[in-house]
Amino acid sequence: MEYKQLNIDDISFFKEIIGADFVFTDLEKLLAYSHDETEDFSFPPEVVLTPRTTEQIAAILKFCNANKIPITPCGARTGLSGGSLPIFGGIALSMERFNTIIEIDERNLQATVEPGVINQVFRDAVAEKGLFYPPDPASKGSCMLGGNLAENAGGPKAVKYGVTKDYVLNLEVVLPTGEIIWTGANVLKNATGYDLTALMIGSEGT
Q1: What are the two backbone dihedrals, phi and then psi, of residue 104, each rounded to the nearest 5 degrees?
Q2: CATH of 8-94, one of 3.30.450.20, 3.40.50.11420, 1.20.140.10, 3.30.43.10
Q3: Burial of 51 (0-12, 13-18, 19+ CB in 10 A)
Q4: Residue 139 and residue 118: Cα distance in Å, rounded?
Q5: Of 113, 100, 88, whose CA–CA distance to 164 is shortest?
Q6: What count of other Cβ atoms lies within 10 Å of the Cβ of residue 139?
Q7: Residue 71: its pLDDT value, please?
Q8: Pairing state of beta strands 101-105 and 110-113?
Q9: What is the pTM of this model?
């Protein structure tokens, strides 16, 4: 597919959607988002966007889908698979401002979190309530839960307790068209329809 290069009108649209303070085109920022922990690869985006709401992401994706502008979601960029590399340029869509633990439901042993929450921060938060979140990738002190989902991260405890996919019930997902969907339900047994949650986990940038 032939992608469109961004122009000043596109940048103005993004500033209108998320605010000028969260649209970055300076070289230092672009270079920072051009790589992960994969060696020797660097693909600078044309712009870095740091939205804060699902609705903002939906508006961005809908616009980019209509205009053939490539988007690469990214988090802490600690991965080793290249999943967060913006190889086609375009937009690096950072989840860093989605950093809230919305709820820890002790009774049902469930939590609702945003994708930019640091793995270790979440582990510490549930530990304070006497609970345990097993997935512990080597970068747990800096990697984000959204990236853990994209990579289906594990860690040493995976041998006994499993990997990230084994601890996810439901995801709020924005499709390329801008449509917002939920992939599952907040219950342990959900046999209705296709397992869209499993489809989304482990995408590694695809």
Answers
A1: -120, 110
A2: 3.30.43.10
A3: buried
A4: 10
A5: 113
A6: 21
A7: 97
A8: antiparallel
A9: 0.94
